[in-house]
Amino acid sequence: MPSFTQIFMAIGAAGSVLAAPVTNSTIPSRSQTFTGDITYYQPGLGACGETNSDSENVVAMSPTEYQGNCGKTITITKDGKTATAKVVDKCPSCASGAIDVSSVVFQSLADMSVGRTTVSWSFN
């Protein structure tokens, strides 16, 4: 049978484990710069619960980057051009780093006829 001291030490050790800071490696860092494909889509009712139109600067993200970022904004860069877009939707088929934007955002960065290109972006 364990002694009172052994039980007390075990409880203390368990408490220090429970008090350790919790980190979630699936939520991307705000200072991180991502690189990936950009495509455009027709916004509507998004995964964040808002209805948006194609004339708004909005973005859908891969499930990895989408998590916990509804309403946040990102800055997208392509060949010296920049655009800002609000996270409103999830893009289940997008690879990590890839984004799907409204056509107004895409047009500000590249010609629509390109359809898909590579950009870098980061959270604001």
Automatic annotation (TrEMBL):
Keywords: Signal. Gene3D superfamilies: RlpA-like domain (2.40.40.10). Coiled coil: none annotated. InterPro entries: Expansin_CellWall, RlpA-like_sf. CDD domains: DPBB_RlpA_EXP_N-like. SUPFAM superfamilies: Barwin-like endoglucanases (SSF50685). Residues 1-19 form the signal peptide. PANTHER family: PTHR31836, RLPA-LIKE PROTEIN DOUBLE-PSI BETA-BARREL DOMAIN-CONTAINING PROTEIN (PTHR31836:SF25). This is Uncharacterized protein. It comes from Xylaria hypoxylon.
